[in-house]
C-alpha cells in the first residue's frame, strides 16, 4: 500500500498548486487569443517553440493567426475540456467565427461557423515549449461553402 504520510500529502499539494498555476496561465493565454492580441500571445512561447514537432519563432506562430482573424474577425476559442498532468495540458476547444473576409480563396459569406480543436501543450518554466494541434479546417470550409444557409 502506498505511503500516505507527510511526503505524499506534500507532493499532492505541490501537484495541485502546479496544476492551478498552469490552468491560470492557460486562462490568461486564451484571453489574449480571444482578444487577438498577438504580441501578448508571443510572451507565452519559448523561442523557438516546437509546433507539431517543427521549431518556429514566436512571431511565426502568431503570423498564422492573422489571415484567420482577418477572415473571421470574431474568431473565438471556448474551452470545453482541459486536463493537466506532469507539465502537459490537453485541451478540447470549440471554435466559432463569422466569415467576413476572404478565406482560402472564398469570398465573405457572412456565415457563422463552429468547429473543434484539440491541442496538447508542453510547459516548462511557465512557457509553452511544444504544441501539437489539430483543428478541423475542412469543416470550416464546408460550412462557408454551404449554399442557401447562414
TrEMBL record:
It comes from the Eukaryota. Keywords: Aminoacyl-tRNA synthetase, Ligase. One of its GO terms (biological process) is polyketide metabolic process. One of its GO terms (molecular function) is aminoacyl-tRNA ligase activity. It holds the Pfam family SnoaL. This is Aspartyl-tRNA synthetase. It comes from Trichoderma gamsii.
Amino acid at each position: 500500500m502506498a505511503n500516505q504520510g507527510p511526503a505524499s500529502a506534500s507532493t499532492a499539494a505541490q501537484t495541485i498548486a502546479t496544476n492551478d498555476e498552469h490552468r491560470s496561465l492557460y486562462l490568461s493565454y486564451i484571453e489574449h487569443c480571444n482578444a487577438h492580441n498577438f504580441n501578448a500571445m508571443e510572451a507565452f512561447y519559448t523561442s523557438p517553440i516546437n509546433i507539431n514537432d517543427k521549431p518556429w519563432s514566436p512571431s511565426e506562430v502568431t503570423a498564422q493567426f492573422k489571415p484567420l482573424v482577418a477572415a473571421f474577425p470574431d474568431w473565438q476559442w471556448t474551452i470545453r475540456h482541459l486536463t493537466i498532468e506532469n507539465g502537459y495540458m490537453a485541451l478540447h476547444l470549440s471554435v466559432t467565427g463569422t466569415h467576413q473576409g476572404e478565406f482560402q480563396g472564398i469570398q465573405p459569406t457572412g456565415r457563422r461557423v463552429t468547429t473543434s480543436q484539440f491541442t496538447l501543450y508542453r510547459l516548462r518554466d511557465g512557457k509553452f515549449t511544444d504544441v501539437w494541434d489539430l483543428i478541423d479546417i475542412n469543416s470550416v470550409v464546408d460550412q462557408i461553402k454551404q449554399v442557401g444557409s447562414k
